[in-house]
Amino acid sequence: MTAVEVNFDGLVGPTHNYAGLSYGNVASLSNAASYSNPKEAVLQGLAKMKAMHDLGLTQGVFAPHARPDVNVLRRLGFTGKDSEVISKAFKADPVLLRACYSASAMWTANAATVSPSADTLDGKVHFTAANLNNKFHRSLEPTTTTRLLKAMFNNDSYFSHHEHLPDQGFFGDEGAANHTRLTDAHGKQGLELFVFGASSFNSALPKPSKFPARQTLEASQAICRLHQLKSSSQLLLQQNPAVIDQGVFHNDVIAVGNANVLLCHEQAFLNQDNALQQIKNAYLGEKTLHIIEVPTAKVSIEDAVTSYLFNSQLVSLDNGKMLLVAPQECHNNGVVNTYINELISADNPINQVQFFDLKQSMQNGGGPACLRLRVALNQQELAAVNPDVMLTDSKYQQLSLWANKHYRDKLSNDDFADPSLLLESWQALDELTQILNLGSVYPFQQ
Ligand SMILES: NCCC[C@H](NC(=O)CCC(=O)O)C(=O)O
């Protein structure tokens, strides 16, 4: 039986908001303080999951995290009952409170790095949650992410879970957003590309000068060791620091790979000709490797960042062709739309495009690819996954009803002072752990 790639999409949490927390992420900064619509956000995400399922792809659901993170507020000196902690934090530092309310765990491309069993020496699928230590609100994620991964992939015979890397900038790790895998077929040994923004220890390597490089070389090296990656399955490349300074805060804002196709901007990598040659030399497959470089003359970095063209998902369909799952913003951008039409009619495996309205997530800098974590699994491994986290028609109905029942359609700054938002959110998540059969994964359930 053949292996499949499962996309685990982050279900948007009930407190999704725009707090402007991600310096270096243009969308996050420019939408700060505007009000959000969590209900629309979760339904937009569910509609994408359902569409993937309807195409015959295998789709999973990744639960949100419990917010606000009251424990971290207590660590920071706010005392009393939960409602008091919230009202004190709101008065003292509303931005801090919003960070503790962030639904950023929705971007599951940053949840973890995953290495399929065909690439690892012990033949297991390896998972390491990303420490996300470059941003305070995201640094709150790894412990719960690991707990969720263990509840989803709960079988030691097939799955190996590692503790996240040390919580320190030297080992800054942003997960699969800086990781892609090239292979003839999902079940075959692949070449895993690890794209780092800078090195912590080697000062000879260039760095961006304005915005932070969130992924370090040393973090990527540690993941390769932890995952027992075959040496022929790993290639480490540096992202072009000049584009990080233009808002390309993760590699998946400038490149996307799937099977034997790598679609990237011509400014994606440092010393790009050399980087692409290394990829060609290291590719293990027998099929033609298609590297499609998009020239600046056709799509500028600014257009790439505002449209999120490269944050499209690239998925293989049963007919052997590939579909580009793009954000609506690509359709709205004339230049990018023209390029996509050219791409799908050219001689390469990508021959279709579908656009999705993911505006609520996009306004925080998260497109289709940010919202999913890819896990390639053979049939035995797939059978060992917690079946309740897989999307079916009835699971979709159940989750839509759940979201409509619990989510608000407007959140603005003053709402974060209201302790009933905490109660409502935790009640929703408590119910969700039953729908997805996750057990007691949240701190408030322990
Ligand atoms: N892969 C996409 C990640 C987007 C995410 N945005 C945020 O966290 C914005 C949150 C805010 O500003 O409220 C980030 O930058 O890590």
TrEMBL record:
Active site: 174, 250, 370
Reactions catalysed: N(2)-succinyl-L-arginine + 2 H2O + 2 H(+) = N(2)-succinyl-L-ornithine + 2 NH4(+) + CO2
Domain of life of the native organism: Bacteria
GO MF: N-succinylarginine dihydrolase activity
Gene3D superfamilies listed in its UniProt record: Succinylarginine dihydrolase (3.75.10.20)
E.C. code: 3.5.3.23
Keyword field: Arginine metabolism, Hydrolase
Family annotation (Pfam families): AstB (PF04996)
Pathway where this protein functions: Amino-acid degradation; L-arginine degradation via AST pathway; L-glutamate and succinate from L-arginine: step 2/5
Record-listed substrate binding positions: 19-28, 110, 137-138, 214, 252, 364
UniProt record similarity statement: Belongs to the succinylarginine dihydrolase family.
Quaternary context: Homodimer.
Function as written in the Swiss-Prot or TrEMBL entry: Catalyzes the hydrolysis of N(2)-succinylarginine into N(2)-succinylornithine, ammonia and CO(2).
The protein, known as: N-succinylarginine dihydrolase
Organism lineage: Bacteria, Pseudomonadati, Pseudomonadota, Gammaproteobacteria, Alteromonadales
